[in-house]
Amino acid sequence: MSQVIVVGAGNWGKNLVSNFHALGALAAVAEASPVLRQATAVTYPNVKLYSSFEEALSSSAQAIVIATPAPTHYRFARAALEAGKDVFVEKPMTLKVAEARDLTSLAEQKGQILMVGHLLLYQPAIAWMRDYLASGEAGEVWHIATRRAKLGKVRAEENVWWSFAPHDVSVVLELLGRPQLKGVKALAHPMLQTDIADDVNVLLEFTSGQTAHIHSSWYWPLNERSTTILCEKKMLVYNEVSQTVTVYNKGIKADLSNRDEGSFVAPVTSDEPLKLECQHFLSCIDSREPAHSDGSNGIAVVEILEKAQKAMKEVAYV
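Given the sequence above, the corresponding structure tokens read:
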């Protein structure tokens, strides 16, 4: 089996370490923090540890998994690709579209696997909805509304949009069949820190005529993670907290009266998405097939993130 080195063993990196270790694919961990390095050594006494990214890069491992702060993603991923490594980089892929395109182009030139950690694309519930919508059973898909909100960890180096929204942007693109973006409108509200948005609403319009609304907030009384899909014949609601997908057979008739013919809860498996994501990366390394969340998918997500950020500066709460 292919072996990987996980770079970054912090809040999320430790989960990647755990999963690749359980899959028998963890060659080593690179972590700059002595405290985190010691904690990793205690949990995984037989796993090799590096104190720097550069040490990891010089190893013989076939792939590098990057779980470091977002501002480092581009530099680390580019260095790994140049060194001939396959790369898994956590979301957001980069903080600039130009950088995302550069990484994708470099990976293609060198024949390396480049995969972005869009975790929800490996969530069984999302896969079920994607296939259900593609079957045509719900009719034409018109609009998707997502909410990812809680009283969360407020950051000083990035706003809630860049912290939370990559998940939902990737899901919207997946469920709509990866359409081409037409326009972006955004409204951002910095409540706790100057110029760092805590609550964001973004409206996306695609050339297909479909639309999406994304609400991201880390200053919210409830823990809400949901996706609502409005279609020609049916409506779907995904509750990410309870991991349920409910399909409502309801809508509006031609005479503008309501139609309600019941609902059902979809038969969604409980497979762990992070395990599936890690397995997919290992499979891509072995098969040399492009990842589902490949560089082009990463570019599409970063493009929306970047354009929405620009739109936030044009419209603000007063």
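The first strand starts at residue 4 and ends at 7. Try to locate this feature in the token string yourself.
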